[in-house]
Structures are given as C-alpha cells and as structure tokens.
C-alpha cells in the first residue's frame, strides 16, 4: 500500500482548514434551517387551531354538501403541504447534523480532458453547497463524478454522466476519518485502493448495528450499487463479502438517483429474521435516507393468507427438522416440497384443475342462495378457453347478481319482515317518506307495502353484507379443499416422475395437518402460489424494487411466487450457497430456473471477505466447497481455538472463561451459538449458574443489543459479532453436509475472534482443517498440542 502515514501528511493543516470552513458553512445552514423549521411548525400549530374557521359546514342541500366537502379538502391539502415541508426540512436537518460531525470522507482531484488544472472534489454522505459562492463544497457520494473515487486509481479515468462519458485524469485520491469536525486520520491512496481506511473501518468493535460502508465501497461492490440497468441482479459471495452492505448502499443510491420519482416505500427488503431487520435498520438513516420496507418472507406469507390457517414459522420448521434428522420423512417432505419437480407438478395440477374446481355454497342465514354444485355449474358455463382467474371472476359476477336478486325477492318474506321490527325509528320514517314520494309518481302503488319492502331491503342489505364480502373476496372458491385434494389424490395415485419413496404417507400427513387448521411452513408457499394461480395474481405494483437476502434458502416455489407477485419490480438477490441453512436442496442459485424466472439476470460474484480477520477466513474457508475462491482481507487476529471437553458442565466453564477474556479484550458483542433452541436454553441456564450475564435470543427477538447472547445458529443469520463461541461443535452435532453449512455459517459470524468447544470429539468439519489454521487448547485455555 502506498500511502502517507497520517500524522506526517504535509497537507494536514490545509485540509483541516477546509474541513473547518465546510463545518462553519454547515452550521450556518443548520441555524437557518432551524429557523425555517420553527416557522413551519408554528404555521402548522396555528393552522390546526384555526382549521375550522375557514370552513362553513352546510349540509342542507347536495350542493352545500359538495361545497363543504371541497372546503375541508382544500384545508387538509394546505395542512398536508406544510407537514410535508416540515418533514423534508427535518430530514435535511438530520442529514446536516451528521455531516457537521463528518463533513466528507474523501477528496479526488480530477482534471477534465482539455483542462489544464485538476479540480478538487470533496465527497461526503450528501452534497453541500455554499449558496453565496454558488459552489459545491461537498459532493454526494452518489453523484456521477464520485464514482471515480470508487472505480479508478490515479491516472486516466472516466465517469458516466447523464450527457455521456466524461474523460480526464485522476490526479489525487485522498481519504479522511473526521469526527466532530476534526481530522483523525488521512490517507493518500496509491496503487491499491483505500486499504488503510478499510482496515480502520474493519478493525472497529461491533455495536450490534450494521453501519454504512460509504467511505470504503470496493470496486466490485460499486458495480452492484450503481447498476441501474439490469432488470434482476444475483449477487453471490462468501460470508462477510459485503452482499447485504452493498444491497443497502444500492437502495440509497437508487433513492438518490431517482429522487422525486422513487421513494423508500416502493422498495421492499426480504430479511431472513426479525432480528436482522433491526440489525440493518440504521444503515439507510445514517445515509440520510428513509428506511425501506422490510419483511420476512414468513410475515409476507401470513399477511397474504390472512387468517385462513395457523402457519408454522420457519424457525419451528427448522427445530422440527433438527429433531427429526435429515434422513427423516419430514426432511424428505420438506426437501421435495421445495424442489423444482414439485413446483412443476403443482403447475400441472393447476393447469388441469378446471374440471375439478371446488366451491363453497353461498348461504344467507341458513338459506341457500347457491349450493356448491350450483356454483360449480356456473363455473362450468363460463368459457373454458379463458384462464381460471377470469372464469372465477365471471362466477363472482353471477353470484353478486344472484345476491341482488335475492335482496329484491325476499324483501317481503316473513323472516325478513320479522327482522324489520329491530330497525331504528329513523329507518321507518325514511322508508315512509320514500314510499309516499313514490306513491305520488305511481298512484296505483300500495304505499304501506312499499314502505315494508324498503325496510325489508334495508334488513337484507345488512344481512347480506358479509356474504357479499365473502363473494367479492373470492372466498367461495375452496382453494384449501383443492390443495388438500391434490395430496389425497397423490396418496392413492402418485404422480409420474420422482417422488420420495414414502410420498403417499407424506401426503396423508399433509391432509391430516390441514384438517387441524394448520399449514406447515413447507406447504404455505405452495398453497399461496396455487391460490394465486386460481384466483389471479395480486401483483404488487407499487413495489418497484425488491431485495431478497439469503436467497440460497429459498425454495423454487418461493422464488416463483416472488416473481409472480412482483412481476413489474426489479429484483436484487443476495446469497451464498455455502450458507444454506434450510432443509432445501442446494443448487438453486446455479439453476436454469433462475435465468427462466428472471430474464436478463446479471450475476455478480464477490470474492473478498471483509468481516473476519485473515485467520478466521483461512480457517473457515476450508469448510466451504469453493473455499479456495474466498480471499481474506489482510487483517490480523488470533487463531481460532478449539477446546474438547468431557461434559456439559465443563463446557459451560470453558465458555464462561472465554467470555471473560472477550470482555477484557473490549468486545461489545459476543454470541454463543448452538445448533438448537433447546440447547441454547440448557446452555443459558448453565452459564447463568456460572455467574455470566447474558441474553438468550429466541425467534421472537426483534433487536440485538451489545452484550453476550446465546442463540441457535439459524437465528444469527446475516448478523455479526466481535467474538463468536460455537458451543458443542462436536462430531455428534456437526457431521453431515447440512451440518457443515450450519457450522460454516456459525463460524463466519465472527469479526475478531472465533472459539469452538466440543463435548467429546470435535466435528470432522473442524478436525479436517489444516492444523496451522486453528489452535487446540485445553479446558484452561492452554495450548493443548
Ligand atoms: N467495502 C467495505 N468497507 C467496509 N466494510 C465492509 C465493506 N464491505 C463489507 N464490509 C463489512 O463486512 C461485514 C460483512 O458485510 P455484510 O454483512 O454486508 O456481508 P454479507 O456478504 O452480507 O455477509 P453474510 O453472507 O455472512 O451475511 C460488515 O461489517 C460490513 O460493514
């Protein structure tokens, strides 16, 4: 690395003077903004107080009603506009406050082609203009020219501006660490980019929150961040290679580039667990952007399925699997239901479903408006050339028509007239007035009967409301019955092609579970997918960008569902096949299925791992299939340690000892990772008995705080800790290929230090690593080799 040691840099004073100038200008702007904010706030309070003064409420005639409506609307619009102005100013203020502490993090000197001098460009989290001088004191990191900082080395360079490519020469590339307006460190980048600043960033202690990487975005990451052309992106890369970070920076970049046209509510991030949602929730606000929408795939499924079933969550499914074992029927069921063969089979079933469509009858207070057979007959009368959702829609129209007819026909019937007695007096008076008016227009009308008819229809309208809703929301289609029937049929008559040998039993179990009102997690997606095929896809048009993290854990149908629900959205997927911690079959990321579902898919692979020290990466990469491709970042730390102990009490003792050492090292976040929830519970109790203060994370945990946590590995996905202790990393626990992925995921959560303890012989996935990549210690933490 060519670079000047910070303290001796000859330009230090000049740069500090510039930083002071910028900060002073920012402070002045902040004061001005605070004045504006106070003013707008005052206006809002005043406006709210006198909201009704300018509105005359007059509901006498229809014209008056319309006028009143518009007057209220106009007032509300004025108020809304001020509130928006206030929100905008408050947002700018927050960004400015952050900028004042660290006004910029880089400077490039760029000499445009044809110019004789280079222009210094300072880069920060947002741009800042000196309005009097009409010059940019700081450029936004997302501005076109800023890309030179991320992409180029000193020498000829170019960047893409809206009007085309701009060429020139990069004369200087300088990086800063500034806190509280004071320069703490300053590096000039030479042939390699920003390694010192990166080292500075990666050596920090984790505070349980992910942070932005804006000052040290690497060239390959920048490709992903600024890609505004590919319809879909699949970013694969080793643990800690910055996939999630790049995706969040990408969201910030797109929000900036398309500001005014794209807002944060139009971007959706699928997170692996609720904990992760809180872990990343700081990144965008740090960059002055609003948080984008976040959901776990499970939450999304439940929202779509409403309350039709109790849907098992993926963590319970995981526990079920860990208990049953990989060779169990349950595991075979889950794997098969996640496969392409199953997805194709479901597509075939839906394609041939028309003759077997099932419906619920339409009943009103025990009276039959249409039997299930009637509804089926109505369906059969529709044009068989049409797609299922269109045919269902036609049946809906016919049923609504029948409901209207029923309302007309039944108004004078006894059961309805009996219910009329319960109507309020006002309803009687209204009906009598209307009947009298009609009598004047049609003298032959029986006025009393007309009033009774009107009252009867009012009763019916109320009674029919839920039935109408039932029809309008297509709940008359027995989708659950059809999903269930598919398994019933398959149990007695298995479909052609590959099935697990005990498929018939699996099908019967699925039926039993549904009869109890529960949907296993592995059935939730196929069921929803089938439902969307029958009833019509509720395409989520407002969402324009979807980001899917940990995509290696998704099944074929989950991806098909995402594609169909977000048909018009651009999709960015992030994954690492080595971290497959779901019972699904590996390889989904490699398959043609990806290219078929996401036409124009662009794949980007990240090779370098940033999270962990060189020692941790050299050790963990041995567990990965394509480990040789993982490049560690040259940051030194201790060798990972392994202690083999004889029992659980001894294990707790070793962990307590290690936790003490981690605390002495100043680690703020430490995780003790187990395989299962039950183990996490036992270990928590054992550690508490040793006097350790810790927090146990379960699937309901929604935030990560500094300190020691005990959790099963699958809950720590995507998250990182200063120190990680893998509990009971023994042969019994981590033996199979699936276990290897789990162990790899656990070990790669560590930033600075990794320790493993095993009750009995350690896992072969550890023992097969080169002896010089880890250290064996005894229960007292003393080298045991
Ligand atoms: N360019 C960078 N500059 C500074 N830090 C970086 C950079 N890229 C990644 N990191 C850091 O590396 C760590 C891992 O990043 P991130 O979580 O985005 O990786 P990932 O590929 O999503 O990991 P995993 O697959 O293990 O969940 C984070 O602490 C992040 O801040």
Automatic annotation (TrEMBL):
Q: Which InterPro entries is this protein grouped with?
A: DNA_helicase_UvrD/REP (IPR000212), HelD_bacillota (IPR048228), P-loop_NTPase (IPR027417), UvrD-like_ATP-bd (IPR014016), UvrD-like_helicase_C (IPR027785)
Q: Which UniProt keyword terms apply here?
A: ATP-binding, Helicase, Hydrolase, Nucleotide-binding
* Pfam families linked: UvrD-helicase, UvrD_C_2
Name the positions where ATP binds.
237-244
Write the protein's name: UvrD-helicase domain-containing protein
Q: Which PANTHER family match?
A: DNA HELICASE IV, UVRD / RECB / PCRA DNA HELICASE FAMILY MEMBER
The record, for NCBIfam families, names:
HelD_BACSU (NF041464)
Q: Which residues form the UvrD-like helicase ATP-binding domain?
A: 216-613
In terms of Gene3D superfamilies, this protein maps to: P-loop containing nucleotide triphosphate hydrolases (3.40.50.300)
